[in-house]
Amino acid sequence: MEGFYAGGDLAYAFGSRDDVGHRASSGQLVATPGTLVPGGPNWGLKIGWRDKIQSTGLAFVYGVELGYIAGGIGDSFSTATHQAEIDVKRHLALRLKGGVASIPGDMQFYGILGYARADLDYSVAGTAGGDTISVSDQSDYDGVLLGLGVERALRENLSMMLEYEYTRFSSKTAYDAGGSSTVITPGFGNLRLGLNFAF
Q: Quick check: helix, strand or coil at residue 26?
């Protein structure tokens, strides 16, 4: 399992809590109406390169990978006073991978560290404490990702991988036209099962 490869995966995301707040234009917090927990099925494509350094009993593996993720990662809620929604449209991930492999090279275990950039839609609307908020934000968000993975060779140029990855995007304060605001703090974990084809 060395050299260039391409692959794809199916995944399911498990969101981290984004407690939605409603601040009036004065800066006062007037409501915390609910929590968004973005998650759902998604899929990915990737291309990468890897190599290994032989040692006694084990080999050290390292590589770099560029991935594209799309699908149904999102969440929403509606209460008597507020509605909120998050939708992760798609995102790119640049991953550095490093770990160990068995000397025959058919199994490897590794960690993941990387950078992510996502196209994200976020909205909050409602009324509380005499203030009305109507925020709609469509922006690209930068983030960092950490993960663990295992990969097993099925034949000379085909392998199966299982990875868990947590991505945390930078927080942002979004304002509406009247100055009311909410703080956006998106993040989610993603469990991925896929195939890699070496070439």
A: coil
Number of C-beta neighbours around residue 70 at 10 A = 14
Give per-residue pLDDT as tens, 23-67: 999 999 999 999 999 999 999 999 999 998 987 778 899 999 999
Q: What is the CATH number of domain 3-198?
A: 2.40.160.20
List the structure tokens of 44: 């990915």
3-state helix, strand, coil in the chain (%, to 5): 0, 80, 20
pLDDT digit string, tens, across residues 90-114: 899 999 999 999 877 689 999 999 9
**Chain center to CA of 65:** 15
| pLDDT tens-digit map of 112-145 | 999 999 999 999 999 999 999 999 999 999 999 9
Residue position matching structure tokens 């976020």: 122
Residue extents of the structural domains in the chain = 3-198
| Whether the predicted model's global pTM rises above the 0.70 cut | yes
Name the phi and psi angles at 151, rounded to 5: -135, 140
Strands 82-102 and 58-78: antiparallel
What does the alpha-carbon distance between residue 173 and residue 143 come to, in Å, rounded to a whole number? Answer: 16
Between the alpha carbon of residue 152 and those of residues 1, 43, 57, 143, 149, the distances in Å are: 9, 20, 17, 29, 10
State residue 121 phi and psi, 5-degree precision: -110, 135
